[in-house]
Structures are given as structure tokens and as C-alpha cells.
Amino acid sequence: MKMRILLITALLVGGFLYVTSRTDFGQRRIFHNNDRGGEPFWSAPTVARSAGLSGDEMNNIDIYKASHLATVNITSTIYRRTIFFEVYPAKDQGSGFLISQDGKILTNSHVVANERQLEVTLSDQSRYKARLLSRDEANDVALLQIDPRKKLPTVHLGDSDALQVGQKVLAIGNPFGLEGTLTTGIVSSLGRSIRGENERTLEGLIQTDAAINPGNSGGPLLDSAGNVVGINTAILGASGNIGIGFAMPINRAKLLLEDYQAGRQRPRLGVSVVPVAGDYASALDLPTQGGLLIQEVEPGSAADHAGLRPGKQVVQIGNAQLLVGGDFITSIDGKPIDRDDAISRALARKRVGEIVELTVFRGGRTVNIKVKLDGGGKL
Questions:
Q1: Domain span at residue 99?
Q2: Do 156 and 208 sit in the same domain of this protein?
Q3: Residues with a known catalytic role
Q4: pLDDT tens figures, 197-246
Q5: Do 131 and 232 share a structural domain?
């Protein structure tokens, strides 16, 4: 008959009592003293489900559950040039959010810089090709469309005019490709102006300390009721979040949606430009008070039909490479160019079919050119 040795060792470790049982096989079992019918030395939450969550935490959780399924990842294939002018494809990523069950998505215009190759990934990892329906570069807003195989979850649009400094906001997006990320903060300030891409000034932005990082652009900024009050647009600093982020007020996007719904296209000129002034202008024999030097004219655009001329020759001026030899716009509708975003601001007051008059420096003399605006192309 095998001998059985029972070794009982009472150990009080960190408020727990253990009983160790050893058999002649060298096996060991560990029991909590409650397994022997005693009372535990710790107290459990009365409702384990809530785990002691505060009302504010539950609010965050509820908003996330209701909104993250409608937040999407957007991949834009853009074509870049090497220093030898060789073209190669590169992918940029951003975020967006569904506003209709049939697949309409709001995002930033800069997220969809190349609208020819856009792909949207939903929260269930299904992927769709997307097409651009409308964009407003002056407010960095774009409307996309995918063709889903089912009805999709959506978010509700709030009223950004009612925002107050100090109120809670939540940002959802895909920073650094980490999908469905939630950050929280407050409205730090209102009416901020910053320089956006291509040196374009973005005005009237919401400033927030909710963490916004590369990849968050185009995602929703929500209030504590779960309504979208802004579109996460930019950060201060090149590398990542330092507690100062910016969002485009959602009421700006509503203007784009109203025009689209009414069948009104946003007017476009069809040019890409760079601001030139001072010493740079003097070096190129252009008026030193400054203006916008046309780099490209989109074929078939309003600018093309009006006879505007693009640059022809690449030159290095300071740290910049410019196409020179094209038209130099010095005023729009009689107003001198005093801002880099002068074209976008002028077009914001126009409708498709209306006329914009450009004063252009061309070949050593000044000419006035009237352009009938259409709804295609750049700027």
C-alpha cells in the first residue's frame, strides 16, 4: 500500500491563505481558502459587469460603440516623382465616416489627393473602390461614394456653430494604420487659422487636445451626444500628437452636401499654382508685389477653355523647383492676390456658370482674362 503524505502549509501571502497538498507522486494543488468554505480577504464589485465605470467612461464607450463601425480607412494611391523625374506610385492613408446607408463618405480633400485610385476599408475589413462625388479644397472637405452590398452604419451630423471651449470631444480614426482608435479631449479653442497642404490657409478650425495623429485625417470629431461636430484635419508638428490638433467644423461640410444634393457642382478653375513674391518674383522677372504662378492647366477645364497657360520649364529657385513660363495671376475680380488661398476663397462665393476675371502677367505685359467656371478639375 502506497504511503500518502499530507503536508499542510499555511501561507499568508498578500492577504491570501493557501493550502498545499502533496502526494507521493509529487503533484501539487493550490486552493484559495474560500474553496474550503472560508471568507475571502478581498471584496469584489457588487456589479461585475460595470467594473466600477464612471458615467463619463460609459458615455465614451457608448459613443464608440455607436460610431466606430461607421468610421472607415481610406487608401489613396498617388504618383510621386524622383529627383530624376521618374514617376512611382505611393500610398497615403487617412480616415473618413459614413453619412448614408448607401455608402456616402465624408473625409478631407487632402486625404483623396488622387481621386483616380481610392480604396475604402470598412470596419468589417470589406473593401470597396471609391469615387469622388464632390470636393471643396478651400475647406478641405470631400464627399466619396462606394457601392456596398448591404446597408451600412452611419453617424449623425451635429451643429459646429454651437460648440464651446471646454466641452468634451472624441476623435475616431486610423492613426498610423491602427484602425478604430478612440481618443478623447476637449475643445481647446475655436476659430483657429493654420497653413494646410500646398500652403493653403484653413480658417475657422476647431482646436482640440484629443490626440490626432497621421492617419486620423478625415475621421469624425464627436460631441458627448455622439454627433459629428468636426472632421479631424491637421496636427501641429510633423511627427505626431503634441496635444494640439485641428478639425474642420462640420457645418462647412454641410454646405458641400447641400450643393451636391441640389445638383449644384462646386466651381473649379482647373489650375495648380504656387505663390511667388519678393526676391523670387524679381529673379523670375515677375511683378514683385506677388501673385500665383500657374504650374499646370487641366485639359478640358475652365482655365483651359479660357486659354490660361501653364509653366513650361523647370527651374530651381531657392529650395523650390518651379515650372516657369506660364501665366502669373496678380488679381482676381479686381482684388490683388494677398493670400495663397485667394483662388479658393474667390471660388467659394461663385457658382458653376458664373464668370471670374483674372488679371494675368504674361510675356512682360498685363492682360485681363474672363473665365466661365465649370465643375471639374482642380481649384
A1: 57-264
A2: yes
A3: 110, 140, 217
A4: 655 677 789 999 988 888 888 999 999 999 999 999 987 765 556 778 89
A5: yes
Q: Looking at the predicted structure, is the pLDDT value of residue 374 above 50? A: yes
What confidence category does residue 378 fall into, taking pLDDT thresholds of 50, 70 and 90? low
pLDDT score, position 7: 40
Q: Do 92 and 175 belong to one domain?
A: yes
Instruction: Identify the CA nearest to 249 among candidates 225, 221, 227.
Output: 221
Residue 136 lies in a domain: yes
Instruction: Mark whether 187 and 61 lie in a shared domain.
Output: yes
- Whether 256 and 295 share a structural domain: no
What are the phi and psi torsion angles at 250 (to 5°)? -65, -25
Domain boundary among 264, 279, 298: 264
Q: What pLDDT, on the 0 to 100 scale, is given for residue 49?
A: 55
State yes or no: pLDDT of 17 exceeds 60: no
Burial of 270 (0-12, 13-18, 19+ CB in 10 A): buried
In sequence order, the 6+-apart residues with CB closer than 8 A to the CB of 121 are: 72, 73, 74, 75, 127, 179
261 pLDDT band, cuts 50/70/90, is confident
Chain-wide mean pLDDT for the chain? 80
Interatomic CA distance for residues 90 and 68, integer angstroms:
27
CA dist 265 and 348 (Å) reads 12
- The reply to whether 22 and 65 lie within a common domain is no
3-state DSSP assignment of residue 148: coil
Q: Among 264, 279, 301, where does a domain finish?
A: 264
Q: Please tell me the distance from the alpha carbon of residue 28 to that of residue 10, in angstroms, as a whole number.
A: 14
DSSP string, 76-114: EEEEEE-TT--EEEEEEEEEEEE-STT-EEEE-GGGGSS
208 with 340, same domain?
no
Asked if residue 109 belongs to a domain, the reply is yes
Q: What is the pTM of this model?
A: 0.60
Instruction: Please report, for the domain that includes residue 303, its CATH number.
Output: 2.30.42.10
Q: How many domains would you assign to the chain?
A: 3
Q: 80 forms bridges with which residues in the sheet?
A: 88
CB 378 within 8 A of CB 270: yes
**Based on the domain organization, do 107 and 129 belong to the same domain?**
yes
Report the distance separating Cα 272 and Cα 330, nearest Å: 15
Q: State the Cα–Cα distance between residues 138 and 269, nearest whole angstrom.
A: 13
Question: Span 49-73, mean pLDDT?
Answer: 87
